[in-house]
Amino acid sequence: MSVKGYVRNFKPLEILTEGQIEQIHAATLNVLSKTGIRFESERALKLFEKNRCKVDWESNRVRFPASLVEESIKMCPSQFHVKARNPKNDMVWGGNRTYFQALSGMDIVDIDTWKTRRPTRKEYYDGIKVLDFLENVSIIPWYTPYFGFKNVPSVMAMPEGLAARLRMSGKFTAAGHTKGCEVFNIQLAHAAETELRTMMAASPPLTFYEETVEAAYRIVEAGFILLPTSGCVYGGTAPATLAGSLVTSNAEIIAGIVFAQLVRPGTRIIVQDYSFPQNMRNGSPAFGAIEISMHQAAFNQIWHWYGVPTDGAVAYPSSKKIDYQSGYEKAIIASLGAVSGTNTIWIQGAMYGELAFHPYQAIIDDDIAGMLGRFLEGISVNDETLAVDVIDEVGPIPGHFLNKAHTRKWWKQEHYVPGVADRLTYAEWVKSGQKDILQLAEEKYNDIIDNHKIELPLTPSQEEDIERILKEARDYYKKKGLITDKEWEDYQKDLSSKNYPYE
Amino acid sequence: MAEEKKEVLDNLRRAIYEYNNELAVESAKKAVEIGIDPLEALDIMTVAIREIGDAFGRGELWLPDLVGASDAMQSAVPVLEEEIKKRGENRESLGIVVIGTVFGDIHSIGKTMVATLLTAAGFEVHDVGVNVHAKKFVEAIKENNANILAMSALMTTTCVEQENVIKTLKEDGIRDRVKVMVGGAAVTEEFAETIGADGYDPTAPGAVELAKKLVEKA
After folding, report:
1. Whether B31 contacts B12, CB under 8 Å
2. In sequence order, what DSSP letters do the residues of A230-253 get, joined into one string?
3. How far is A421 from chain B (nearest CA, A)?
4. pTM of the predicted structure, to 2 decimals
């Protein structure tokens, strides 16, 4: 089974007028040249200075000329090929294609108590198995399904997580960066013969810290895909207005693009909108808010105009349970992202922002993805779909279409059948035990864990390389003092468990 | 001859799996022509449709497949039945069912599903269609010597017609000869009891189980 990308066959939603886009663009250029962006990285500052930027070495601020900004944006390919570990799962990002990606959470949640806890190694691996199975998951990103797992020191969570994803799936994956772990991540990707995507996240407002910049250097130099992103909060780390927050997030992302194109011209970029309104009661991001969709719709439109692929629909719910609220929050954000033409949509798995992931949630969310994918494909109108011949053959009652070859051929192409949603009649539902969506997801989960086989598992020599790289990383962080003795002891026990690496 | 026979029977089976009405009729005629026992030919198709019904039950096949297979079989059955009569043979089956949607109601899908699944389970099924008058049900029961009458009604305004059919059976003196089962979206267990039906089930696979039970009791 290859991953499912959907081709949108209609014009995307336009929330802005052409004039409004130009205004936002002009304001962005103004901020980039007048206010500038702070880069806490000496080598980046030198690079910018050498390339027509004004650098204020006191405040580490870079002011970008409009010409450099526009040249850099033009250097981003508007569509590009993305190589997954299993070639069947390669993708093309950009244009009118949309892919869905899993949405991670820090911990796992207990379905009976709705309390969160650290997942076990087995739960981590099983979570990936589910994402590998789900037909609308095309990307299994960084720290997915969970941020880490029990008995693994936090500094090793990313390399261990990446290794788990490479072992359990041939789908495209990504890796984050912390404490220089991208060095090991890049090695792991090479060992498994896959490409990676890593984010370059601004620290809003208008700042990039050294660790981020260093990681971006490594990823861009390795020839991988960079995802510049701004995780701004409107009213906190960005203006409260949607237009103003679009300007600051644009400026931050564009600074990342200029950086990447200076380091390696032609670098493949996908830009991400990872922004939220501020919840003015408690200061946290207001997950699930409708303004997120407005921001993302504008973002998708602006970046279409720039001609850069977009990652403009992050469907975080605010709900802490798998319930009605999480359903509508995810569906609204993902739907509006889809119709506004984003190239990727994050949806399967997460609860309350990134608080938790649950495989049942991912299974349920996959149906939302399938429905939206079907919608994006639009309505095919041609002689065969217009069906004039079969309409004539059937005629009025007692004719019907159910027994026609035309129906047998077309219904499966034209009608999306959900993987788990309850579509029974009331009578069937009563007869089959009145199961709700959580029970149906649980059944599906058990079936996947028992029966799903990973296509194209790692070869023994790839596996050997991966284990060697992980060992190097473990020793490196132990030597650096980033793993305590107690952590090391637990970790060693975990590594010597009977079914390592699976449990 | 043996090879020709094998080819004809293979084609009959294939006609069901490929939902091919023309091939089904053509192969049934050919079977009669070369002297294949019509019961054997019918049996081949029944096995095929049972497999389709089972796959439908497991969720591997869908309604258009079920109806397509049923259509193919229904188009071949009259050819074989005529030959069975000619030879004076008897079809062995779990029971003989007359099925239809009642007068005033033209919904056919639920009724067709039940008819197909009953056929698959080994019943001899006579589908008298939709918008069927009470008198026509009575005639069909007599003509086919049926022991089950299955009636469908989808609307609250037409399910009362089921009661009228039962009344007509009584007037005609054949109520005791048949077990009456009713179904359709508007029908409930309670309603079925009120009108004096012998059984009701809300789902098509359930209707097959019900028919089996009713035949055992008879």
Report:
1. yes
2. E--EETTTB-SSHHHHHHHHHHHH
3. 14
4. 0.91
Contacts 24+ apart (CB under 8 A), B50-58: B50/B120, B50/B121, B50/B122, B52/B16, B52/B17, B52/B120, B53/B116, B53/B117, B53/B119, B53/B120, B53/B121, B54/B120, B56/B117, B57/B205
Q: Tell me the per-residue pLDDT of A152-205, one tens digit each, with 9 for 90 and over.
A: 999 999 999 999 999 999 999 999 888 999 999 999 999 999 999 999 999 999
Token pair listed for A257 = 């693009």
Give the closest-approach CA distance of B34 to chain A in angstroms: 30
The CATH code of the domain at B96-217 is 3.40.50.280
Judge: A430–B106 Cβ closer than 8 Å, yes or no. Answer: no
DSSP labels, A383-413:
HHHHTHHHHHHH-STT--STT-HHHHHHHHH
Please report residues of A whose CB lies closer than 8 A to that of B184. none
For A388, residues 6+ apart whose C-beta sits below 8 A from its C-beta are none
DSSP string, A126-170: HHHHHHHH-TT--EE-TT-SBS--TTS-GGGHHHHHHHHHHHH--
Residues of B in contact with A397 (CB under 8 A): 106
Q: Give the whole-angstrom CA distance, residue A373 versus residue B128.
A: 42
Residue A21, domain member (yes or no) = no
B59 lies within 8 A of chain A by CB: no
For residue B19, give the nearest of A405, A425, A431 by CB distance.
A405
In a domain, A417, yes or no: no
Is the separation of the CB atoms in A174 and A185 below 8 Å?
no
Instruction: Confirm or reject contact between B205 and chain A (CB < 8 A).
Output: no
Query: Averaged in consecutive runs of 10 residues, what is the pLDDT profile of chain B (218 residues)?
Result: 91 96 96 94 92 90 91 92 88 92 88 90 92 96 96 88 95 96 90 94 91 86
pLDDT score of B211: 96
Which CATH architecture is the domain B2-87 placed in?
Answer: Orthogonal Bundle (1.10)
Residue A294 to chain B, least CA–CA distance (Å): 40
What ipTM did this prediction achieve? 0.81
Say whether B67 and A425 touch across the interface (CB within 8 A): no
Contact A75, A266 (CB under 8 A): yes
B68 touches chain A (CB under 8 A): yes
* Domain positions in chain B: 2-87, 96-217
Q: List Cα–Cα distances, A63 to A34, A51, A209, B130, in angstroms.
A: 6, 11, 17, 79
Q: For chain A, what is the domain count?
A: 1
Determine the pLDDT at residue A329. Answer: 98
Quick check: is A411 in a domain? no
pLDDT digits (tens, 9 = 90+) for A405-460: 999 999 999 999 999 999 999 888 998 999 999 999 999 999 999 999 999 999 99
Domain CATH for A119: 3.20.20.480
Whether chain B has a CB inside 8 Å of the CB on A493: the answer is: no
pLDDT band for A8, please (50, 70, 90 cuts): very high
Domain span at residue A100 reads 6-15+74-375
A411 and B62 in contact by Cβ < 8 A?
Answer: yes
Q: Choose among B64, B129, B185: nearest Cβ to A402.
A: B64
To the nearest whole Å, the CA of A408 is away from the closest chain B CA by 6
Q: Could you give the percent of chain A with pLDDT greater than 90?
A: 94
Residue A487 covered by a domain? no
Phi-psi region of A114 (alpha: psi -120 to 50; beta: other; left: phi over 0): left
A328 or B104, higher pLDDT: A328
